[in-house]
Amino acid sequence: MQNITKHQHITRASGRCQTSYCHQPNNCHLWHRDSYPKLLSGVGKTINVYIALTEVNKFNGFEFIPNAKKDRNLSVKMTDPFSGNNFFEVTEKLAENSVPVILKPGQFVMFTDELIHRSVCNTSGQVRLSLTLRVTQPSVEVLPNYNPNYQQSVLL
Asked: Which superkingdom, per the lineage (predicted)?
């Protein structure tokens, strides 16, 4: 039996940026990885499972850059003081390779903490709802201040 940690929350995106890492209205386009160094401790990988509860498209969702590596073409623009996540400066040329995530309700996408991605500002006029689960290796501990609803790891 493997010890797997699971975290879930509801994401709501409407006409303005409301994702957890946006602290200012114009920051919807901050490229980042979901590494959360101030909220997760230990060494190991995490897998994010993003489940669409409503339609996700290029006008209300998020996008990613395939095969982007921090050590090539990326520099840290700023760091989120709450999570410790770095936000990256991405060149226009690299951003041109971005791929929008398109999902129907009930569909999901899985990605690791290495994926460079960003939310897009919702211009669809519709609310985007999702459920996000985080699955980690047993060596990664979710710190109690990650979420006020966090209780403990789930063994699967």
From this structure: Bacteria
Tell me whether strands 62-65 and 99-100 are parallel, antiparallel or unpaired.
Answer: antiparallel
At residue 110, what is the residue type?
Answer: M
User: What is the per-residue pLDDT across 78-119, written as a single tens digit (0 to 9) for each?
Assistant: 999 888 889 999 888 888 899 999 999 999 999 999 999 999
Q: Which residues contact 6 (CB under 8 A, 6 or more apart)?
A: 133, 134, 135, 153, 154
What mean pLDDT do residues 124-145 have? 87
**Alpha-helical regions (H) of the chain:** 92-95
145 vs 142: CA distance, rounded Å: 8
Does the domain made of 18-141 have the CATH classification 3.40.50.300?
no
Q: What is the pLDDT of residue 130?
A: 94
pTM over 0.85: no
**Distance, CA of 118 to CA of 97 (rounded, Å):** 13
